[in-house]
Hints:
- It is a single chain.
- By secondary structure, this protein is of the alpha+beta class.
- It folds into two domains: 25-147 and 188-208, Nucleoside Triphosphate Pyrophosphohydrolase, CATH 3.90.79; 215-273, Arc Repressor Mutant, subunit A, CATH 1.10.10.10.
- It is 19% helix and 35% strand.
- The strands form two sheets. Strands 1, 2, 3, 4, 5, 6, 7, 8, 9 and 10 form a ten-stranded mixed β-sheet that branches. It has a two-stranded antiparallel sheet with strand order 11-12.
- A hairpin with a 4-residue loop joins β8 and β9.
- The termini are far apart.
Amino acid sequence: MEKITYNSEEEFLKAYNPEDYDRLSVTADILLFSVSSENTENYRKTDEKKMSILLVKRTDYPYKDKWCLPGGFVGVGEELDYAPNRILKRETNLDDIYLEQLYTFGGVKRDPRMRIISVSYMALVDKTKIENILTPTASWFDIISYEEKDGVVNVMLDNGTDVIKFAIAKYVKPQVTDKYDMEILDNNSLAFDHEQVILTGLERLRNKIEYTDIVFNMMPELFTLGELQKVYEAILGKKLLDPAFRRIISNKVEKTDIMKTGGGHRPSVMFRYKKN
């Protein structure tokens, strides 16, 4: 096809026909993290913590009855950064929480309806601050297991009723040291390519908690150091030695005069996030 040239902006706009251009749609998908507690029978130990992810069960095709991240289409006249807040409020009744843009997913076959690019966001919330009731299709899933071996990551999620399992192979991108191509090897219940979004968000969160204060978006105003350490361990997926943990958070928290009592535990000093 012969390339057409124009002499002015006005001439171009007069001849412009939207049908001459391929079109695509954009969605915003939100990966919402929180932390759950498992009560322990040992009064000497702090309740165990597990990472939680909020998922929504689809009620329409495609992927009807599959679980997915809260998401939706970005309006033509809508600012991109407004969309995730609107979608999160609509599908979960949650608002005014921490959000950051995570990654853009643009696989050609990621959605069977049309070419759709997803701008994903990572959100963090403290469940104790949630006063609104989730919509009936939304549910918290705990990360029961996360194992990586020989470049393959296996993840299991559980909400007490449904169990979701998926496996992803990671391939280092050529000439790039910290980026991966991903291939979904197994998936029984998730829609679209949301396994990749979850894995990307988990890795982002793990990388950031040691050099930022991001974790405190999932903490209540007052907490014990034992509780905070359990949250760090739940995110990192490993136990931390007390001295190493104290060094990480030494400049991030401040001691209060309040003591936590009851619940079968010994009294403990409460701390709060130290805002710089």
